[in-house]
């Protein structure tokens, strides 16, 4: 445990030195925690001046955080809470395109957007361009190609990343979602489809992990400088 780590009650220990070690602060994953636990962790981080990104947050937790910290921002689509600023909006760098196959995939896509923006990347969300109406993707391809990194979010058979990888030169981070009927197995079919993509240049994060995609895309985007 680092010298500045701090125990929160009996259930958590804040990694206050993470930003010093790796350049980015600890992030609060709220799913699986009680609202009280998440609130205590967020409060402890703010006492130490650590900017907060909380993911998989529910509206009840958001209400409690906003009551305690009126400057917090809750995105109910992305299910993220931000409190404090890691990077000012005017200083965001480069461009990450977050390309979303269907409207049902938007919550996961927005988690990726909010994560990348929090850590300092400019983003553009491009929605409802899945392969069921592939002409819609072609009509936005010029916008997609402007990005340094592309996040492709898709459920069902998850063909979107493979299609994109055959059309663009930027690296693609694929995010499978749980969107789909019974045989999608809660996103497992999409995950396996992305892992077995025949087009090169695709990496894959776990099911519904918009945070992981946004974080990694930001790291790649920052390699290109301003």
Structure description:
With about 230 residues, the chain is α/β, with parallel strands linked by helices. The chain folds into 2 domains: about 5-85, no CATH class; about 90-225, 3-Layer(aba) Sandwich (Rossmann fold). The chain has 9 helices and 11 strands. The protein has helices at about 20, 35-45, 60-70, 105-120, 135-140, 140-145, 160-165, 190-195, 210-225; strands at about 5-10, 10-15, 30, 50-55, 75, 80-85, 95-100, 120-125, 150-155, 170-175, 200-205. The protein has a 5-stranded parallel sheet. It has a 4-stranded mixed sheet with strand order 3-4-6-5, with helices on both faces. Strands 1-2 form a two-stranded antiparallel ribbon. Helix 8 (about 190-195) links the parallel strand 10 and strand 11. Helix 2 runs parallel beside helix 3. The chain is globular, with a radius of gyration of 18 Å.
Secondary structure: elements and pairs:
Blueprint: E1 6-8, E2 12-14, H1 18-22, E3 28-29, H2 35-47, E4 52-55, H3 59-68, E5 73-75, E6 80-83, E7 93-100, H4 106-118, E8 121-126, H5 134-139, H6 141-144, E9 149-154, H7 160-165, E10 172-176, H8 188-195, E11 202-204, H9 210-223
Parallel strand pairs: 3-4, 7-8, 7-9, 9-10, 10-11
Antiparallel strand pairs: 1-2, 4-6, 5-6
């Amino acid at each position: 445990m680092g010298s500045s780590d701090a125990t929160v009650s009996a259930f958590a220990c804040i990694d206050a030195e993470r930003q010093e070690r790796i350049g980015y602060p600890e992030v609060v994953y709220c799913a699986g925690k009680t609202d009280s636990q998440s609130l205590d962790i967020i409060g402890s981080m703010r006492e130490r001046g650590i900017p907060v990104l909380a993911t998989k947050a529910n509206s009840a937790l958001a209400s409690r955080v906003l009551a305690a910290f009126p400057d917090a921002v809750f995105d109910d689509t992305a299910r993220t809470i931000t409190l404090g600023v890691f990077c000012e909006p005017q200083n965001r760098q480069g461009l990450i395109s977050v390309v979303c196959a269907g409207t049902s995939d938007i919550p996961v896509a927005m988690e990726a957007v909010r994560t990348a923006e929090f850590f300092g990347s400019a983003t553009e969300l491009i929605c409802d361009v899945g392969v069921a109406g592939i002409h819609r993707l072609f009509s936005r391809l010029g916008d997609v190609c402007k990005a340094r990194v592309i996040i492709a979010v898709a459920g069902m058979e998850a063909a979107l990343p493979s299609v994109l990888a055959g059309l663009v030169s930027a690296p693609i981070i694929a995010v499978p979602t749980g969107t789909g009927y019974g045989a999608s197995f809660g996103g497992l079919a999409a995950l396996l489809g992305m892992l077995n993509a025949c087009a090169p240049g695709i990496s894959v994060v776990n099911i519904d992990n918009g945070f992981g995609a946004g974080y990694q895309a930001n790291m790649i985007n920052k390699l290109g400088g301003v």
